[in-house]
Amino acid sequence: MEHVVPERLGQPPSSTGPGQEIYALAERLFPICRSITGDGVRGTLDILSEQIDLARHEVPTGTRLFDWTVPQEWNIRSASIIGPDGRKIVDFAQSNLHVVNYSIGFKGVLTLDELRPHIHTLPEQPQLIPYRTSYYAPTWGFCMAHDRLADMPDGLYQVEIDAEHRDGSLTYGEYLHRGETEREFLLSAHICHPSLANDNCSGLALLATLARILKTRKTRYSYRFLFAPGTIGALAWLSRNEDRLHLIDHGLVLSCVGDAGPPAYKRSRRGDAAIDRAMAHVLRREAGARLIDFSPYGYDERQYCSPGFNLPVGMFQRSVHGTFPQYHTSADNLDFIRPEHLEDSLRILMHVIDIVENDWTPLNLFPKGEPQLGRRGLYAALGGQKSSGISSMSLLWVLNLADGQHSLLAMAERSGLPFGELAAAARLLSDHGLLAEAAFEHRSR
Amino acid sequence: MEHVVPERLGQPPSSTGPGQEIYALAERLFPICRSITGDGVRGTLDILSEQIDLARHEVPTGTRLFDWTVPQEWNIRSASIIGPDGRKIVDFAQSNLHVVNYSIGFKGVLTLDELRPHIHTLPEQPQLIPYRTSYYAPTWGFCMAHDRLADMPDGLYQVEIDAEHRDGSLTYGEYLHRGETEREFLLSAHICHPSLANDNCSGLALLATLARILKTRKTRYSYRFLFAPGTIGALAWLSRNEDRLHLIDHGLVLSCVGDAGPPAYKRSRRGDAAIDRAMAHVLRREAGARLIDFSPYGYDERQYCSPGFNLPVGMFQRSVHGTFPQYHTSADNLDFIRPEHLEDSLRILMHVIDIVENDWTPLNLFPKGEPQLGRRGLYAALGGQKSSGISSMSLLWVLNLADGQHSLLAMAERSGLPFGELAAAARLLSDHGLLAEAAFEHRSR
Amino acid sequence: MEHVVPERLGQPPSSTGPGQEIYALAERLFPICRSITGDGVRGTLDILSEQIDLARHEVPTGTRLFDWTVPQEWNIRSASIIGPDGRKIVDFAQSNLHVVNYSIGFKGVLTLDELRPHIHTLPEQPQLIPYRTSYYAPTWGFCMAHDRLADMPDGLYQVEIDAEHRDGSLTYGEYLHRGETEREFLLSAHICHPSLANDNCSGLALLATLARILKTRKTRYSYRFLFAPGTIGALAWLSRNEDRLHLIDHGLVLSCVGDAGPPAYKRSRRGDAAIDRAMAHVLRREAGARLIDFSPYGYDERQYCSPGFNLPVGMFQRSVHGTFPQYHTSADNLDFIRPEHLEDSLRILMHVIDIVENDWTPLNLFPKGEPQLGRRGLYAALGGQKSSGISSMSLLWVLNLADGQHSLLAMAERSGLPFGELAAAARLLSDHGLLAEAAFEHRSR
Question: So what's the ipTM on this one?
């Protein structure tokens, strides 16, 4: 068994390390106007492809995806509102949040009263532009700061949205890092949000960087990375891979992984899957971290954990979506995410990967009494010292629980010791011929 | 499936509603001298029969009821103590608590010292008359205020209890509201206490009113109302219905439901029966409500939950019997119970009935991913709004857990959402062809 | 079934009772220089043999014990360090802690710098002599107060340890109190520590006294007392009794049972063995008592609970070993243990023995409804009294749970009532023909 021990594990995030790389990548993704279909997704995948050899999938308009159908493809060129005085009040070129995502095209001259129903603002956050979509109801609209709307005088407004819906396809990207077995760890991030930095340029950039890191490693599991539009993209992937879903042992959806909030994990619908237990083990050592029970609202864990699939997929984030004031507004910008937080999220992901990679179920070959560790140089030679038990605790726990019924993760849960310490102890005991592998197991139990 | 949605659910108790009706009924029951047998029970059933078409059962003296035997019937006409000065000190006509319930007849002239062992008082509540019984040991006695006993001078007292024990029968009343199925909800109140308002004129009046309300409704369950003397009456009913007990899916014993205390529920011996879970769901939303584990002391849940039956029967009350100072004294009078508390108890009962009536186990017919709610008008058309998830949560929870393993009640427990909201969501989804019924089930799981 | 009700149960420890006897015995054991082999163990067994008819076992040097081998026997006659001024600075005759236990013999003249690596002190407790061992690495050494080492001038020191390792045997003592069945309760204390009063003269003296008390009693279980050197002695016993281990239903390791700390129990590896539940029941009523989950560090529960045996053996102590400042130092002396604490520990042991002796699973012969207790004189004749339920609660609980699935211990756990009260109730009900024994069971369930 090859071990993937993250090199930076336990070190404080650096100011010139992978955090900076992830941030730089997110920075490049930020300006693109993504949606659930269209060239924004393709442009995003182009940039991600510089990191890893992405497979790109195009699913034609009209394709049935379970209860859903791939909609027409949407592309937008420009959009603006010109005021009575001829000045451009709203310009898509300044922020792609200004147009309701998936808005139909429109051109006309309207009074303010006619225009107002098509304008969305946030009265309680009057300086921010909201993010709005209308994927499945054909309508047009603009989003803008409430303060600016309040300043708009009566008069005639020239309104234009140069956007089109036409038959085309839905696009998603996929990358598979092959491990020793075909058992899979699914990592998925939505690629459909326009200029929102945390939600989800952060997740896309982090996953691509993680994929690039894993590419050079030999792993036990295969790692599948999915960059797909929310809901419809996940459903597209699920519908095309139904016969392979049984291979998924672990999964994580990633979103909002770049802000200053403490890490948070939402459990899979199963609640006690190995990924749930491994994430709990990791986060219990992180200050302020939160473990949240599954609920059927959020990101694509909604699809992966629907009752017909019920995959062992949880969701990792920092500030919980929908609860921070920047969420789905123009304040979710590149200032809201920081390299050190992105790097911290990477560290946590590497830690959980380290656990599932290195988890196994040892069998004590000398189960009657303790084997004599001292004779093998595994025990403080001079007994009676008050501290002698402490450094040996991981050896003793592994030996005691190595009855073939406890994985190392289960031992960590029972003993309260860090997984890494127990894994190291198990390796040492194994090297001394004291342990065997109970059985080859794909799944952490 | 017909829905029994209590009309007043969620409304504050009114001053002219069912609470007043229940109180008025309790008021009429209060003066009657009931006991475990005799004409007091029959007179009580006469009044209750004005509400519902009660079946009346007479079980002859000497009938074996498991380990018990129906005792002789007891009736009392009058009782008094006349003091040395010829004045009536104690008069049964003033309060039937004055005579030890089931007292044998007696007539004689006694000194105070001879009389005193036959007088029961409450030295710590010196102005109250205690309630005492002696069903199975033949003795005679009086109960009175301790202060009055202290004032009694030495001298000769004329004592008379005009009561008799003779072969007769034990009487109980029963009413069955037939539902669509023969699966039953048993509702039971003891009818053996004399002038004690909360314990249990309140329970008798509440049950009769509930029966009258249900009479006009179409229900899934059949509802069996039992008005029987404590212990011996419940045993009589059990012994005559042993072959029908398997039909009981839910049950509640009612007592002390009219005082100002917060609602309290004592779980069945099983502890996790559907009635236990449904009552827990209801009471978790009631301020100050208490959930109490089963114990083999209390009312007739002792018999229903004896190991040979172990029925899913819990006990509903307000102030917990035996813990409030008015308990089993003359202070448990018509001032101690109030219409608003009776109405509140009715509301809680209707709520739990609503749950067991409307609980079912749906099966998501589109279990792979979420079905497209927007296309069916079930989802906020304009996505991205911060609040969009909240109003849709009940739909999403029902769809997610509709794997045929979760009843709506189980969904309420897991989601933390009110049962009623989930039931409404399930109806809506069902109406849109998204849900089927997993299996016809009598029992809430 | 014979009942072993400890006579002193519930009484405050006396100043002239068994506590004094245990203390006096510990006092005699204290001066002896014990180790894992040698005449110190034999001398200790000589004294214990005055209490009970101990079987003494000698296991020859070189005998294989699972992964271990019996070492050469160690005996020491004297040891000293004489300073440059000719004065004896360290003398084994003053405290046997002064020599590293199992030290090899040595004689020589050394400079202070040469001597210092062989001297062990406690800089943070500079007036105490530490306890050190070196069983399996051949070395020599002294232990002394740090303050005295600091005062030692440069110069030449005459050092002598008159000790020898030679082929011999390991010694342990065993006593079996035969009960009605051959199912066993194992009680084990380590006999290898030299002059440390709490750890473990206290355990040895307590066990011997307990054995002497049980000798006169008729018991259901057989009680096996083991006085064996830590680790190697327990392994010797296990290796010689492998075919009998299945008979052990309960077990306790005892150590540090004489200090002023509150009682503490460390659960067996199983965590829910009958001994774990019985000890929890006892200790939940003891002020300050602690229940500690199993961990594979401590005393011989490490061997009994190794995965190849996994015996239902927990550990009883007062102050938790390794956590009190006197632990493994010269401050663990006869002042540190007190008769009243030893007696309190005895009381707790007797209580837990009382539970396992008297636990059984009754079957209610009148399971339908409550049997009529009043008719049998088992119930307050005059009903309605507020207090009537309290004194009858144990009868009602036993009857209610006597479905053949609940032992008395399980009833105590569910009802919250003391085991003894339920056991008395069950006897009374049994005497009245209301209960039968569900099945003959060796193990408390």
Answer: 0.92
